[in-house]
Amino acid sequence: MNREEWKERENMYACWLCNFPDIGNKKLHALAEFCGGPEAVYLADKETWGRILSPKQVQSLARYTARWKPEAEYRKMREEGIRLVTITDEGYPERLKAIPDAPYCLFIRGKLPVENAPAVAVIGARECSEYGRHVARLLGAALGRRGVTVVSGMARGIDGISQEAAMEAGGCSVGVLGSGVDICYPAQNRLIYEKLINTGTVLSSYPLGTPARPQNFPPRNRIVSGLADAVVVVEARAKSGTLITVDMALEQGREVYVIPGRVTDRLSDGCNRLVKQGAGIVLSPESFLEEIWRIWETGKKAIYPEQRKRDDARTANIFLESPKTAGLPEELAEVCKALDFTPKSPEEICQLLSGRYSEKQIITCLMQLCMESLAVQVSPGRFCGRRNST
Question: For residue 169, what are the contacts with CB-CB under 8 A and spacing of at least 6?
């Protein structure tokens, strides 16, 4: 058996493993790593499975395996033009490997995502304004013409509009679904779905036949931001689900940009708030393209969390001003300098400061910095630096 035949066989068993519904992504990783690959998992006994899975999951996997026909199911998937790549495959997107809890496998329809060019996630409101539609088309087309891949969720509104514009301009786009890749959701975006299959990429971490459920979209959103070097928010309300993707992008070390809007426009509340927090501003497609390509051409295709920790010479977000720490006690000043627009926990700050202060001391400092408007708590236990207003 040559390497190509062996890999195809491994993917056949990966298809079996990834279709098992009662196991999360982390345990998929753990089980495959513990056993030595998907086929080894398939051939293992219940006792081996039990080293990773609960007794209930072991019994469920045994029943599932008894009725699953690996060769027939895998052949059926391939006949539909769908491929599967696992995190150990060469075709697995490099950007995605670096994010926390990277999906163990991806189901792909169309081409493999382009690796040798910048990628930008364009996201925003489903019920967008005419202004939002115009900007999404303008931005998508400009990115497509310049060879920048547009990544989005193929949703109604900003997502689908930007992706369609990129493809119409001759560019590439990646649609990340919250369903199986064999299901077009929403149905009204059928033309965009077909264009993506023919000229771009449709991918999902969910098995074929998985319907679009609400709980599927937050994990989908982490893939959208994970596949991109930067995220652009075109329109978003104050409590928009789009902001969940922004949080994930920041945790992954991605740059976040917004299209600013009028202060009286509720569809711009989320964008304007991000501006206040230090997000980059897209003033024109041309200036944004120059910045994205400059980042790419200097080798800064994506700045992942571990790289940020090692890069002491550069702030983690180019739009965050240097904190004004004059007059602060040394302990407060050091904690303040460790903050940027990537949410951090006290434990992570403790590591950045090489353990010079205890987590209890850091928590006390963070509370004081929040009172001084030098920091903000963005979620339970996670803090960001706050842009100076003067």
Answer: 140, 141, 142, 144, 145
